[in-house]
């Protein structure tokens, strides 16, 4: 049995109300007609407490009314073999496809030949996002055998085992491969900066081979020999900072868009006041949040921070709106980030002479840049062996979620409540009529 609203069962304590009423209810003593009190001695009145429940059948009916009403509100669903068989005979199908895939025809049939009970297409540029939305829709569907069909070129990188890990085990997974793109493709691959200047790149995908080359180089003047970040440091730390910037440029980094501004404050002993004087805000633009996430995920950056020793940032940089980027060897914040208007501000408490400094600069520049994603342009398809390994038939419908039930059995309980109310009314009236009849008989007999 499934309860659609199990929290309502706590209201069963209300079943004690009729019992308390029967126990605590005080009734006036019945007046009995008596021919004469002439020969009776006068006595003192004594209180008599009832210790036996009157009319237990009526009490049981009233308790049953409350219990049945609470159970009806809780929404019972009895999972019978017939109901499971009906669920097993229908199919809910979610189709994930690219924008170029043909629409699913009405009346489509499932993989096992059964007619589809519910069907919906999920289109978009990302197959992984379509899979997530399809699984959410399947979870909210009424009970049925569930199928997930992916219709796309299925190139490498468009789908992974991690994307399919969130699919429930009873959901069948099927693939329909569309024609692959041309085997050779050349696309732009962003812009990089180095000591030679700024260069535009392009990448050529030819089957399993990938080649990258610079197609043009601009800003060969001294203006091109700088990084698109502002570094604030003391005069004593300037030589070490310049050396770190030159080391990063010699290895090439991505060139961020001109609308993104970043400031790196080296908070050494001679420049700690500059870091404390920065006015930061709690709100942060989306690109800043993405940059902070990229920096914290940089494995080289985290490794370099874990061996840093010496003076670190004080506690104010570990509280909001500052976000700690990495911890030092002494488990103290070594770098923190916050937003100051249109600027992303990074504060470092490590010595500029540490190897941590150039690694931090490289992580910051690459984080605020827009790194091209080659997955949508891949020309090699996922192997048929891998797709077969991911494929599976739809299993028996799992126990449905409470919000996905289309019909329940509470109506039978409400009918039972109505029947019990009618029985309670009949019992109460019959008891009253019997009591009136007995009093009338006593009056006649005494008279």
Question: What does this protein look like?
Answer:
The chain has three domains: 2-78 and 409-446, no CATH class; 82-180 and 381-400; 229-372, no CATH class. The relative contact order is 0.14. The two termini are 63 Å apart. The strands form four sheets. The chain has a five-stranded mixed sheet. It has a four-stranded parallel sheet with strand order 4-3-5-6. It contains twelve helices and 15 strands. The protein has 447 residues and is α/β, with parallel strands linked by helices. The longest helix has 37 residues, at 410-446.
Helix and strand topology:
Elements: E1 2-3, H1 16-24, H2 56-74, E2 76-77, H3 81-89, E3 91-97, E4 116-123, H4 127-139, E5 145-152, H5 161-164, E6 172-177, E7 184-194, E8 197-206, E9 209-218, E10 230-232, H6 238-250, E11 253-254, E12 261-266, H7 272-276, H8 286-297, H9 299-305, E13 323-327, E14 333-340, E15 343-348, H10 356-368, H11 384-390, H12 410-446
Helix pairs in contact: 2-12, 6-10, 8-10, 9-10
**Strand elements, count:** 15
Give, in order, the helices and strands. Answer: EHHEHEEHEHEEEEEHEEHHHEEEHHH
Major β-sheet, in short?
5 strands, mixed
Domains (count): 3
From the N-terminal CA to the C-terminal CA, the straight-line distance is: 63 Å
Chain oligomer state? single chain
């Amino acid at each position: 049995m499934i309860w659609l609203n199990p929290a309502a069962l706590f209201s069963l304590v209300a079943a004690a109300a009729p019992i308390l009423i029967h126990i605590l209810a005080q009734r006036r003593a019945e007046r009995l007609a008596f021919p004469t009190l002439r020969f009776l001695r006068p006595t003192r009145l004594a209180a008599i407490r009832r210790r036996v429940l009157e009319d237990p059948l009526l009490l049981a009916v009233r308790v049953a009314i409350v219990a049945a009403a609470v159970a009806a509100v809780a929404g019972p669903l009895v999972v019978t073999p017939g109901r499971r068989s009906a669920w097993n005979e229908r199919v809910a199908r979610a189709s994930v496809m690219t924008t170029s895939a043909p629409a699913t025809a009405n009346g489509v049939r499932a993989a096992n030949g059964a007619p589809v009970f519910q069907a919906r297409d999920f289109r978009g540029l990302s197959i992984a996002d379509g899979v997530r939305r399809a699984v959410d829709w399947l979870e909210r569907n009424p009970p049925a055998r569930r199928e997930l069909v992916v219709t796309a070129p299925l190139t490498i990188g468009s789908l992974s085992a991690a994307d399919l890990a969130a699919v429930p085990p009873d959901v069948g997974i099927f693939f329909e491969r569309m024609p692959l793109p041309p085997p050779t493709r050349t696309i732009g691959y962003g812009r990089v900066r180095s000591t030679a200047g700024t260069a535009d790149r392009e990448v050529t995908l030819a089957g399993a081979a990938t080649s990258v080359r610079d197609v043009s180089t601009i800003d060969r003047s001294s203006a091109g020999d700088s990084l698109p970040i502002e570094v604030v440091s003391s005069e004593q730390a300037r030589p070490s900072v310049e050396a770190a910037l030159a080391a990063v440029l010699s290895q090439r980094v991505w060139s961020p868009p001109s609308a993104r501004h970043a400031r790196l404050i080296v908070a050494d002993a001679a420049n700690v006041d500059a870091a404390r004087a920065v006015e930061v805000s709690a709100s942060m633009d989306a690109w800043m949040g993405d940059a902070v996430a990229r920096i914290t995920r940089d494995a080289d950056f985290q490794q370099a921070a874990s061996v840093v020793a010496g003076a670190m940032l004080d506690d104010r940089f570990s509280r909001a709106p500052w976000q700690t980027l990495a911890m030092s060897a002494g488990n103290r914040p070594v770098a923190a980030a916050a937003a100051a208007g249109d600027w992303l501000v990074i504060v470092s408490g490590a010595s500029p002479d540490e190897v941590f400094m150039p690694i931090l600069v490289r992580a910051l520049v690459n984080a605020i840049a827009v790194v091209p994603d080659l997955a949508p342009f891949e020309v090699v398809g996922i192997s048929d062996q891998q797709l077969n390994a991911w494929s599976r038939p739809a299993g028996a419908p799992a126990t449905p979620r409470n919000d996905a039930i289309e019909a329940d059995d509470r109506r039978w309980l409400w009918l039972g409540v109505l029947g019990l109310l009618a029985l309670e009314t009949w019992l109460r009236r019959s008891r009253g009529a019997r009591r009136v009849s007995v009093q009338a008989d006593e009056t006649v007999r005494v008279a």
